Amino acid sequence: MDKISFLVVAILCSVVAFSQGNKSLDVVSYELPNGLSVYLNEDPNASVVLGAIAIKTGGKYDPADHTGTSHYLEHMMFKGTDEIGTIDYKAEKVYLDSIVMKYDELAATIDDARRKEIQKEINALSLKAGKYAIPNELDKLLDGMGATMVNAFTSDEVVAYFNAFPVGQMEKWMELYSHRFKHPVFRLFQSELETVFEEKNMYADEFTSNLMESFMSHFYKKHPYGTQTVIGKADHIKNPSLTTMQKMYDTYYVANNMALIMTGNFKVSDVKPMIDKYFGEWKRGDVPEYPKYEEKPFNGVESVEVALSPVKMGVLGYRTVPMGDKISYVISVIEKLMNNSSSTGYLDKLMNDRKLLAAMAINYEHLDHGGMMFLYVPKILGQKFEDAEALVKNEINRLRTEEIDKEWLESIKLEMIKDFQLEMEDPEMRAYKMGECFLSGKKWQEVLDYPKIIESITAENIKEVAEKFFGDNYLSYHSKMGFPKKDKLDKPGFDPIVPENAEVSSEYAKKFEEMPVKSMSPKFIKEGEAYIHKDITKGVDLYYSKFDQNDIFNMEIKLKTGLKNNPKYNQLASYLQYIGTSKYTNDELNKELQKYAASYSISADDNYFVVSIDGFNKFFKESVSLVLSLLTDAKADDSKLERIVEEDDMARKMERKSIDDVASALAQYGLYGENSKYLRRLSAKEVSKITSDDMMETLAEVKKNPFTVHYSGGLNIDDVAVIVKSMDFGQEKMDSEFPKILPTVEYAENTILFLNDPKALQSKIYFYIEGNVLDEKQMANQDAFNQYFGTGMSSIVFQEIREFRSMAYTAYAVSRNGLTKKDKSKFVAFIGTQSDKTIDAISVMTGLINEMPIKEKRMRGVKDYLMQSLLTSTPSERELTETVESWRTFGYKDDPRKLQYEVYKNLEFDNIVDFYKQNISGRPMLITIVGNKKKVDMKELAKYGKIVEVKQKTIMN
Questions:
Q1: pTM for the complete prediction?
Q2: Is 237 helix (H, G, I), strand (E, B) or coil?
Q3: Helix axes 406-425, 586-595, angle to 10 degrees
Q4: pLDDT value of residue 200
Q5: Last-in-domain residue among 70, 99, 132
Q6: pLDDT value at residue 275
Q7: How far apart are CA 686 and CA 99, in angstroms?
Q8: Rounded distance between C-alpha atoms, residue 387 and residue 356, angstroms
Q9: Statement: residue 11 has pLDDT above 70
């Protein structure tokens, strides 16, 4: 047996042993008599429960003449029931039924004048129905339980609703989730319609969404995967049918088409009776069989040319197998043979050798069909699509025509096994995989058998699959530089639906809040128990956390210097990952690391230069030694410099066409002026002039800085400390200022920075106010202010901006602290809104900021949320020590949640008001806007501050 085969066998035995001994990977699955599928994952290591409801429905189930209905329905499922969200459902229903009929009439009406009349009639009915609605009551009930991650998503074939919560709230969660799906009521729909179109506008401004939609329409010519989209067509969003939505709910939201998925620190024996009690009463239904849409094989090379991207991009699309097919495991190995985290793949080599700017394989599985996309970016100067495509095609052909190196294949499989173990640490990923079992019919044991299945795949299997699927029949998709035509929706001009009962509680809510809960106390982090901190040598600290759920270690080496000190660190991080050492070339080094399934990354942020390593504990010494040789024995290589220049050029081109990136740059410029990260960085010209000498000098500079090492894994601390002690980089005394605090621009009056983007559908608007330096008690009050005013779906900002007025899909406001206790707090708010709503949105947001609404009845909900959230805020074992270091860097000597707990217990509404008055009210405000100037009344805008128009070249070098 050769070395690499021995390693794979050794690792596989270790993985199997850990899987059998790790009870956090066990899943109990069964069906209730009504057909509801239940998946329970008991994880004693978790500090929280993640609960979800999944439904086999989604975009592909939408009627062709009402696309987007499943997504609309997902939004409406947050509006309450016949008992939640209403003061009198019987009276409210009269108007809601009329609204349903009016929307059906609207959908059937073509005449524009009559359509406007109907919309006004709907608005009038909605205003009357709104007199009975209690907005966001479902969200308030979840907040009171300390729920976090409250959200939902719609894909082509599943809709899921989920949140995390403290285990002591288990019975309340089951009661609420059981009830919310039994009798949903689609109230406040007119405002939600506008919100969904804002979501569509947001995606329309992202080139990746347009590119993917276009590609799928050519890849799937018959199936709804390609003929329609989850978000829906613009005309269908403008003309929704509540009748169709109700039919979708009645058809698919039935017990035998749904699953309850839970993972967390509960006991299965405790929750099973609750599940029977609360979910056993859900009704079973007759779910229609989904039709088959046959997709013909591509006939040779089918070519498509579009102009949708900021740089040239190509995709080769091959038909493969649907989700759940056994061949998909072989295809997943093929994906890693093309590109992987060790950069040893066929496509990786094209990038390493600078033959292409970028290339990657993406395995894209659906339940009905599957596909593999090979995406590539030609070199910006001079390379034709045909030449770039030929390079990619040649690498794909190697799967069929060449023998695969056995040692390399075994390394790939070893890496995949390690990645699987890392995935299974994450409760969210386990929940996702349970959902996948529900969708595809896969058994949980097959999930756990993944390492054995991957290990069994041979070179012959790969060649056989490649010959079958990756031949000469495929879609050749070319996108030149360009932008799509965007759907536009004029501002409707309806009266906002501002319910009169926002501070009222329904009878259901009153009873719900009185339900008994299991009393629990927060668990605080203690040094010596949860982690160990050890001074190794002068300027070197070790943070150690025992992690024995599997045999994988993670190590972070954080040198205390960053981009604020030297902008060249960005280029150095890339350079080190492209070069080799005196002993190994870059390719050889990556292959050596891959033999041990070790992965690494090198990065720089504002304050740290970071080397991250993960691998198997039994190869800890070998893995770390190989990676650190890049710091101690790096060999300069001029040939790698051009790759850095080319990648920088591509990144800047894409950045300048991204409205989100431009909005971020404008905000940075407004806050920091010339100290903005978009101006502190090297210019394109400076990047082009970098030499290997520059890089080696910069590396020497980096290594002079003190550093901290974070280790989580199964080795004992003494063994780890020996390795850390050997990390002598020649560090010197630390800079007296760490982390480095950059000065901000001071504003004596309200100021608006405006950057015109004629192609933007949305305006991206940020609001900033500088606050005071806060003490620890004030920071706890800050948490209360944030929960009340601007974070979450029951906050003032969310309700006023999105729920009542449909000004935005995304809207928030939050007061944040800096990196240390000496740093001033900053109030930040954001709205992404349709361009012609810009003035209205700014008017509402500034009105809220200048005169915070006083709603004292919300204090109980705020306090309940903060107290309960402490039960779920314990960092995971992998994140623990870095969280502790960030606390210490900030200035805390102990777990800050201890003081928060004491302050939260005695919170009063006056604390929120005082925080607002001291840190936000009456202070100069900076507003930054990126949007289409033609759609904005600039004279009206001037009422909110002094306008300074800014060019893109001013804010981005």
A1: 0.94
A2: helix
A3: 60
A4: 87
A5: 132
A6: 99
A7: 61
A8: 10
A9: no
What gap in Å lies between CA 887 and CA 530, rounded to an integer?
A: 15
Which band of pLDDT confidence, cut at 50, 70 and 90, is reported for residue 543? very high
Confidence of residue 729 (pLDDT cuts 50, 70, 90): confident
pLDDT given for residue 732 in this prediction: 79
Tokens of 92: 């409210």
Residues 664-679: what's their mean pLDDT? 98
Q: Is the pLDDT of residue 86 over 80?
A: yes
What proportions of the chain, in percent to the nearest 5, are helix, strand and coil?
Answer: 50, 20, 35
The enclosing domain of 648 has a CATH number of: 3.30.830.10
Q: Quick one: 235 and 215 in the same domain?
A: yes
Q: What is the pLDDT of residues 380-429, one digit of tens each?
A: 778 999 999 999 999 999 999 999 999 999 999 999 999 999 999 999 99
CA distance 649 to 653: 6
**Which residues are CB-contacts of 544 (< 8 A; sequence separation ≥ 6)?**
531, 532, 533, 534, 711, 712, 717, 720, 881
Q: In what order do the strands lie in the sheet with 49-55?
A: 28-31, 37-42, 258-264, 49-55, 159-165, 148-154
pLDDT in tens, 736-763: 689 999 999 999 999 999 999 999 999 9
Angle between helices 406-425 and 427-440 (to 10 degrees): 100
If residue 306 lies in a helix (H) or strand (E), which one and from where to where? Answer: strand 301-309
Per-residue confidence (pLDDT) for residue 10, from 0 to 100 = 64
Q: Are residues 797 and 894 in the same domain?
A: yes
- In angstroms, how far apart are the furthest CA atoms of the chain? 81
Q: What is the arithmetic mean of pLDDT over 185-204?
A: 88
Asked if the structure places residue 255 within a domain, the reply is yes
In the block, residue with structure tokens 């106010």? 769
With H, G, I as helix, E, B as strand and everything else as coil, classify residue 451: helix
Residues spanned by the domain of 93: 87-132
How many domains would you assign to the chain?
5
**Main-chain phi, psi angles of 829, to 5 degrees:** -130, 155
Dist CA 253 CA 872 (whole Å): 30
How far is it, in rounded angstroms, from Cα 71 to Cα 159? Answer: 8
% of the chain residues with pLDDT over 90: 89
Q: Among 79-93, 195-209, 411-425, 519-533, name the one with the lowest average pLDDT.
A: 195-209
Same domain flag for 611 and 701: yes
Residues 822 and 916 in one domain: yes
All residues at 6 or more sequence positions from 529 whose CB lies less than 8 Å from its CB, including other chains: none
Is 8 within a domain?
no
Report DSSP state, residue 133. B
Token duo for residue 50: 């993640």
DSSP state string for 295-364:
-PPP-SEEEEEEEEESS-EEEEEEE---TT-THHHHHHHHHHHH--TTS-SHHHHHHHTTSSSEEEEEEE
Query: Are 710 and 783 part of one and the same domain?
Result: no
Q: Does residue 443 share a domain with residue 322?
A: yes
Structure tokens at 731: 């560090």
Residues 897 and 890: their CA atoms lie apart, in Å, by 14
In a domain, 714, yes or no: yes
Pick from 406, 451, 322, 653: nearest CA to 22: 451
Structural domain contains residue 497:
no
Contact 611, 554 (CB under 8 A): no
Cα(460)–Cα(466) distance, rounded to whole angstroms? 10
Q: What average pLDDT does the chain have?
A: 95
* Bridge pairing between strands 609-616 and 599-604: antiparallel
Residues linked to residue 927 through DSSP beta bridges, in sequence order: 752, 767
Question: Letter for the amino acid at 300?
Answer: G
Please name the residues in contact with 245: beta carbons below 8 A apart, sequence gap of 6 or more: 69, 72, 73, 76, 186
pLDDT of residue 380: 77
Q: Kindly indicate the confidence band of residue 861, based on its pLDDT and cuts at 50, 70 and 90.
A: very high
For 159, the 3-state DSSP assignment is strand
First-to-last C-alpha distance (Å) of the chain? 56
- In one-letter notation, the amino acid at residue 115 is R
Judgement on whether residues 379 and 285 belong to the same structural domain of the protein: no
Find the Cα–Cα–Cα–Cα dihedral 267, 270, 275, 277, rounded to 10°. -170
With residue 772 as reference, give the H or E element that holds it.
none
Assess whether 162 and 213 both reside in one domain.
yes
